[in-house]
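As practice, study what follows.
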Amino acid sequence: MESTNEFVQKIHDKQQKDEQNRKRQGKGHPEKKLPNKQH
């Protein structure tokens, strides 16, 4: 069982990565965005 401190650290890291991905997505490179629908 990991300590609470390690658990909180992992969550913070994940939140930070999610935030960076959200900012990076589609800015200046719309062709790199995944299509919403595939027919």
